[in-house]
């Protein structure tokens, strides 16, 4: 099947290979499948027939849609654990908190390494193997490094991860170490690590697997493919997503445009991209109505997964927001941690960054942007165990220095070792 890489700025096309940016203008690249040739091949019935398969690769929530993800890779080169097939949750407590009657949470924390990153890493590492690469690399605030390390080891490849020193949750760092990556702690923040890994990939022959790699975005499209399939191929009114490096925002818009062009959906949902207020360059760009993003030099937020001041995918993300008629907003760390506490106490659970989606819906509903009768899906991006320190510190009221007080604290109670103490404690 014919597939090309196309620059989103100057429009130049390239054959798929070890390429991340346009050689003419340095713009980001899109994977462009031949949708005309796919019209007679893909259908709702085809994808539904693979649903629930126990055989590889179609037991994966990514590779079930392989014609729309990576039609060039052979079964031999596919690297899958498998991933995807994540659940949609409905809970009255979450609805009441957001003020929305029809709200669902799609929990990407149910992926193998505990975050949505596995969606992009599977086709990304598969492409590395197809190209005969030996070493993969990424810069990461945590989740990408865990996923890269796991999938690279599964594929028999070495991996190197560049992390900002002192700015990664232990739950994520432990995964990168355990899965065998070479971990390089870079002096500075994520953006410093990102600049260094791109230089290293160019000079040292490492295969770069941050979201600047167009195949990462292709894998993350499957979140939306799977979502609309779960909803009986009907689009919700809104999809709300936490926003850091903007890979998901980019992927979701691309996914919906392709689904609509192939007549697999009747309408495109509005995309709401939600940043943390201490790491909000994309929100500022949207608010000010300017065409160029101005980086935040020292991004700060308790939501480490979206603590990014210079997101590389902002141009693709802006295209997604505009094409869907969506919006960009920001929420405070207080709003993030309170929304997280609501998700957690509903028996669902998430890492801090994931809760930006629910906090964002509540804010957008209060502003009248989202109607309480709209159908809304919030993307929950990571597992609750990704950052257990933040959870415990919230409930024990240890985040005061960050300006966060626990509106929904669940403090442990110390008791004597006798039945009366138990009786009093649980009254």
List keywords for this structure.
4-stranded parallel beta sheet; alpha/beta; 427 residues; 6-stranded mixed beta sheet; Rossmann fold
Question: What is the topology?
Answer:
Elements: E1 3-7, E2 13-14, E3 29-33, H1 35-38, H2 44-50, H3 66-69, E4 88-89, H4 92-98, E5 102-107, H5 117-130, E6 135-139, H6 143-155, E7 158-164, H7 170-178, E8 182-186, H8 190-204, E9 207-208, H9 214-220, H10 222-230, E10 238-242, H11 247-261, E11 270-276, H12 281-288, H13 314-324, E12 327-331, H14 333-345, H15 356-366, E13 375-380, H16 388-395, H17 419-426
Parallel strand pairs: 5-13, 6-7, 6-9, 7-8, 10-11, 10-13, 11-12
Antiparallel strand pairs: 1-2, 1-3, 4-5
Description of the structure:
There is one protein chain. With 427 residues, the chain is of the alpha/beta class. It has a domain at 88-114 and 216-402: 3-Layer(aba) Sandwich (Rossmann fold), CATH 3.40.50.1100. It has helices at residues 35-38, 44-50, 66-69, 92-98, 117-130, 143-155, 170-178, 190-204, 214-220, 222-230, 247-261, 281-288, 314-324, 333-345, 356-366, 388-395, 419-426; strands at 3-7, 13-14, 29-33, 88-89, 102-107, 135-139, 158-164, 182-186, 207-208, 238-242, 270-276, 327-331, 375-380. Strand 1 and strand 2 (13-14) form a beta hairpin. It is globular and about 70 Å long. The relative contact order is 0.13.
């Amino acid at each position: 099947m014919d597939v090309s890489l196309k620059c989103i700025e100057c429009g130049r096309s390239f054959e798929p290979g070890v390429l991340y940016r346009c050689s003419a203008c340095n713009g980001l690249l899109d994977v462009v499948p031949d949708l005309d040739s796919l019209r007679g091949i893909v259908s709702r019935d085809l994808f539904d027939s693979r649903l629930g398969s126990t055989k590889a690769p179609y037991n994966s929530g990514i590779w079930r849609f392989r014609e729309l993800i990576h039609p060039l890779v052979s079964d031999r080169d596919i690297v899958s654990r498998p991933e995807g097939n994540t659940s949609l949750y409905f809970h009255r407590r979450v609805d009441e908190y957001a003020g929305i009657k029809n709200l669902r949470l799609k929990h990407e924390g149910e992926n193998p390494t505990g975050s949505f990153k596995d969606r992009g890493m599977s086709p990304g590492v598969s492409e590395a193997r197809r190209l005969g690469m030996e070493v993969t690399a990424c810069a990461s605030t945590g989740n990408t490094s865990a996923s890269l390390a796991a999938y690279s080891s599964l594929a028999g490849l070495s991996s190197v991860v560049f992390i900002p020193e002192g700015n990664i949750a232990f739950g994520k760092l432990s995964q990168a170490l355990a899965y065998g990556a070479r971990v390089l702690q870079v002096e500075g923040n994520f953006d410093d690590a990102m600049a260094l890994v791109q230089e290293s990939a160019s000079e040292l022959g490492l295969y770069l697997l941050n979201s600047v790699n167009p195949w990462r975005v292709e894998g993350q499209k499957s979140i939306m493919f799977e979502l609309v399939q779960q909803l009986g191929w009907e689009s919700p009114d809104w999809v709300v997503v936490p926003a850091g490096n903007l890979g998901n925002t980019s992927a979701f818009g691309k996914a919906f445009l392709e689904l609509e062009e192939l007549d697999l959906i009747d309408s495109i949902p509005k995309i709401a991209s939600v940043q943390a207020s201490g790491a909000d360059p994309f929100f500022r760009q949207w608010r000010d109505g300017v065409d160029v993003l101005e980086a935040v030099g020292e991004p700060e937020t308790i939501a480490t997964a979206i603590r990014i001041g210079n997101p590389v995918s902002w141009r693709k993300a802006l295209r997604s927001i505009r094409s869907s008629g969506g919006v960009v907003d920001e929420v405070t760390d207080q709003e993030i941690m309170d929304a997280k506490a609501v998700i957690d106490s509903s028996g669902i659970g998430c890492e801090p960054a994931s809760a930006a989606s629910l906090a964002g819906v509540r804010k957008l509903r209060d502003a009248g942007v989202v109607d309480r009768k709209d159908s809304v899906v919030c993307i929950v991006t990571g597992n609750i165990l990704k950052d257990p320190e933040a959870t415990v510190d919230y409930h024990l009221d240890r985040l005061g220095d960050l300006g966060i007080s626990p509106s929904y604290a669940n403090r442990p109670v110390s008791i004597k070792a006798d039945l009366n103490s138990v009786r009093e404690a649980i009254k």
